[in-house]
Amino acid sequence: MRHKVGQRKLHRTTSHRLAMLNNMVTSLLEHQAIRTTVPKAKEARKIAERIITLGKKGGLSNVRLAARTVKDRDVLQKVFGEYKERYANRPGGYTRMIRLGFRRGDAAEMVLLELVDRPVAQPAKAATEGGEAAAEGEKTE
After folding, report:
1. Residues whose CB is less than 8 angstroms from the CB of residue 66 and which lie 6 or more positions away in sequence, other chains included
2. By mean pLDDT, which of 30-44, 61-75, 86-100, 123-137 is the weakest?
3. Which CA distances in Å does 108 have to 3, 37, 103, 104?
4. CB 111 within 8 A of CB 98
5. For residue 112, what is the enclosing H or E element?
């Protein structure tokens, strides 16, 4: 029985699993959303929440602890800058999992792992202006 066993092994060696999860967390913090399978998302969520909490606390030792996971300096600055301000009043729960259905091919359940309170991407202005101009042109004729 697996009582109180800490994490999922995800059918990988320890070094592969840790490298994969570190890269997933870095991508999540950089792009604010990633698409992955449910078990991987649950493991990456734990690490991402810890990194954001370290960012909220600030300090050199916490920067060094976070740098063990997040290898990209730009993302690290984002964690200790933008995310520190964004989540200052939130006591935890910085991520959300939205179930997307099943992947074609192996039927693995997919989720969108995203940061809460992330800004919604605006559509490109050129595409909307062109579409509006064409729609107005059709109305006037």
Report:
1. 51, 54, 55, 76, 79, 80
2. 123-137
3. 25, 7, 5, 8
4. yes
5. strand 109-115
